[in-house]
């Protein structure tokens, strides 16, 4: 599958899974919540794979500060997925951690949205490299 199709497709699939994660979290459907988290993380991995391949088609370095900014943000966001895993596991053992789990879950969702937005902005201003397909 080409990255121009694979990247937007898996980005939408990841966001749909994350929507399901939030819905099942609020509905306290733990048996669906945790498998949906696993699906979101796998789908995010596939999105990152296509994003890297898509990046090779464009002259991203020429976009200026947005390129290192987006890369740093993308790495931070990927690492931040560990936070709801840690606080979610604590919530299973001790329900008083739920408030912290909700806070870090929203932090991760916020970081995911701004990573996608800065990535899209970077691709919009980048020139396509000639002769690369
Ligand atoms: C991106 C990852 C995740 C997101 C966005 C997320 C989001 C949420 C949200 C919004 C809630 C509802 C909070 C509330 O009612 O105040 C929730 C509840 C919960 N989450 Fe997550 N979560 C994530 C990952 C995880 C993981 C990895 C675990 C377990 C290892 C987990 C375990 C739980 C538990 C036990 C609850 C409480 C359900 C109940 O009330 O019975 N979550 N989550």
Provide a compact summary of the structure.
The protein is mainly α and 133 residues long. Helices cover 79% and strands 0% of the residues. The longest helix is centred in the last third of the chain and has 28 residues, at 98-125.
Structure overview:
With 133 residues, the chain is mainly alpha-helical. It has one domain. The chain has helices at residues 3-26, 30-55, 66-80, 82-93, 98-125. α1 (3-26) runs antiparallel to α2, α3 (66-80) runs antiparallel to α5 and α4 (82-93) packs antiparallel against α5 (98-125). It is elongated and about 55 Å long. It starts with a helix and ends in an 8-residue tail after the last helix. The relative contact order is 0.14. The model has no long low-confidence stretch (mean pLDDT 95). The structure holds protoporphyrin IX containing FE (HEM). Residues 21-22, 25-26, 28, 30, 33-34, 37, 40, 81, 84-85, 88-89, 91-92, 98, 101-102, 105, 108-109 line the site of protoporphyrin IX containing FE.
Overall pLDDT metric: 95
For the report, how would you describe the main beta sheet? Answer: none
Number of E-state strands: 0
Helical stretch count?
A: 5
Total domains: 1
**Small ligands present:** protoporphyrin IX containing FE
Low-confidence parts: none
> Strand content of the residues, in percent?
under 5%
As a whole number of angstroms, the C-alpha radius of gyration is 17 Å
Q: Looking at the structure, what is the overall shape?
A: elongated
List SSEs in N-to-C order.
HHHHH
The portion of residues assigned to helices is over 70%
What is the terminal separation in angstroms? 12 Å
The structural class is mainly alpha
């Amino acid at each position: 599958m080409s990255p121009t199709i694979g990247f937007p497709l898996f980005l939408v699939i990841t966001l749909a899974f994350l929507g399901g994660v939030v819905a099942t979290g609020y509905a306290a459907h733990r048996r669906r919540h945790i498998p949906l988290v696993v699906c979101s993380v796998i789908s995010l991995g596939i999105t990152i794979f296509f994003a890297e391949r898509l990046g090779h088609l464009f002259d991203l370095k020429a976009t200026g500060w947005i390129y290192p900014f987006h890369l740093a943000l993308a790495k931070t966001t990927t690492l931040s997925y560990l936070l709801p895993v840690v606080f979610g596991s604590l919530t299973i053992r001790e329900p008083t951690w739920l408030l912290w789990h909700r806070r870090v879950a929203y932090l991760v969702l916020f970081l995911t949205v701004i990573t996608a937005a800065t990535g899209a902005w970077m691709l919009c201003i980048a020139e396509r490299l000639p002769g690369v397909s």
